[in-house]
Write a structure and sequence with these properties.
The chain is mainly beta. 6% of the residues lie in helices and 39% in strands.
Length: 185
């Protein structure tokens, strides 16, 4: 497994070793010891799968104070996946990492707590899978509008299909600091 650190400390990109032959392929998607050695110390408590059509954009979501770290991957299709640092006091506050995840490249991205997360579907359809370090908690969920000009995400699609909730989110700069996670070195 190849592990790369993204431009923002704590965000990791994994490229698993693929064992392929005429029958197809096999690869390991999770091994607690191996991922701990790579830097993920948290325990995962919930797995989720979403299915979406081309042009769907989900996010940018976060939970605070019941924060979630996520290990994300695509099972089928292709997405552009984004992690935005929303930790008050972070030297990379408001910056983002964007990575293509697909069934072809088999990449995974680890998004630590303190980040907003979102993705858009670039293929006809996509099955998206993610492990979470905390349970979903509707009372502590929040979000940032996907096209916040202060963040400046360069999404590879135009006119995304959004949920009404995602379309109603405001800009990161308009969220009170008391509603955002704090940077811890």
């Amino acid at each position: 497994m190849l592990v790369k650190e993204a431009e923002i400390a704590g965000v990791l990109i994994f490229e698993p070793k693929i064992f392929a032959d005429q029958r197809g392929y096999f690869f390991e998607t999770w091994s607690q010891d191996r991922y701990r050695q790579a830097g993920i110390k948290e325990n995962f408590v919930q797995d989720n799968v979403s299915f979406s059509q081309r042009g769907v954009l989900r996010g940018l979501h976060f939970q605070y104070p019941n924060e979630q770290g996520k290990l994300v991957q695509v099972l089928s299709g292709q997405v552009f996946d984004v992690a935005v640092d929303i930790r008050v006091g972070s030297p990379t506050f408001g910056k983002y990492v964007g990575v293509e995840l697909s069934e072809e490249n088999h990449r995974q991205m680890y998004i630590p707590t303190g980040f907003a997360h979102g993705f858009c579907v670039c293929s006809e359809t996509a099955f998206f899978s993610y492990k979470c370090t905390n349970y979903y908690d509707q009372k502590t969920e929040g979000g940032v509008i996907y096209n916040d000009p202060d963040i400046g995400i360069e999404w590879p699609i135009s006119n995304p299909v959004l949920s009404s909730k995602d379309a109603a989110y405001g800009r990161l700069g308009d969220i009170p600091e008391s509603k955002l996670p704090k940077f811890r070195e």
